[in-house]
Each structure stands twice: as structure tokens, then as C-alpha cells.
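In response to the reviewer comment on reproducibility (Comment 2.3), we provide here a single inverse folding case reported in full, input and output, so that an independent group could reproduce the run without further information from us. The C-alpha cells appear first.
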């Protein structure tokens, strides 16, 4: 089993910055990728950014140029630096890890951390 612990959420004014962290622990054998998703009230969960073990990144168009995903492979930790935050970035942010187990890719999710951007 793999456990994910997120931290770094909070309340910030529009234009401000936050940095989210997600640390993975447990029986970690081979991480394929890690990423961040978010879910606003009444909306579906959506991709924010992902990063592969090799460092390739992917961003949602709405955050490109404002958010930066990075990882520390030695610590099995992924970060999301969020700059120029907007009220529409308000959501619960979830960390996701895709983990290879005996040839099958399993997704693991964190418990979520609230990000609130005030106007």
C-alpha cells in the first residue's frame, strides 16, 4: 500500500502564491508519475499538472505559466508552486500517484487540501 500526505493549502488573496507538497510513503516499488488534480464545489475533478519519474510535465491550460510542478524523486515527493492565484483556482487539491505493481498501474490519491483564493 502507498500513502500520500498533502500539505500547504490555505487561504490567500488573489495574486498571491501557495506551495503544495505531497509525500508518498509505504510499499513504493516503481512510481510512474505523480500529479495534482482539483475539484471545485459542484464541478468534476480536473487535472492541474502531472510529472513523470523522468521529469516530463503536463499542465492544464488554465494554469500554464502560473503553476509549476516539480518533484524530489529521492523523497518521493511532488510539489506544486502556485503563483498569480485567482479566485477560480479555489478548490480542494488532490495529489495522485500512479504506481506500478506487478505490471499493473495503480492510482493512489491523497486526502485533499483546501485552497481558497479571495478576491
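Designed residues, in position order:
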Amino acid at each position: 500500500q502507498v500513502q500520500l500526505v498533502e500539505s500547504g493549502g490555505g487561504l490567500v488573496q488573489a495574486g498571491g502564491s501557495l506551495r503544495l507538497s505531497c509525500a508518498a510513503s509505504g510499499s513504493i516499488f516503481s512510481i510512474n508519475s505523480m500529479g495534482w488534480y482539483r475539484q471545485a464545489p459542484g464541478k468534476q475533478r480536473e487535472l492541474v499538472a502531472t510529472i513523470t519519474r523522468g521529469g516530463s510535465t503536463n499542465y492544464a491550460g488554465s494554469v500554464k505559466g502560473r503553476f509549476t510542478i516539480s518533484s524530489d524523486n529521492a523523497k518521493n515527493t511532488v510539489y506544486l508552486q502556485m503563483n498569480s492565484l485567482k479566485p477560480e483556482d479555489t478548490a480542494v487539491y488532490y495529489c495522485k500517484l500512479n504506481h506500478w505493481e506487478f505490471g499493473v498501474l495503480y492510482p493512489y490519491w491523497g486526502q485533499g487540501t483546501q485552497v481558497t483564493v479571495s478576491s
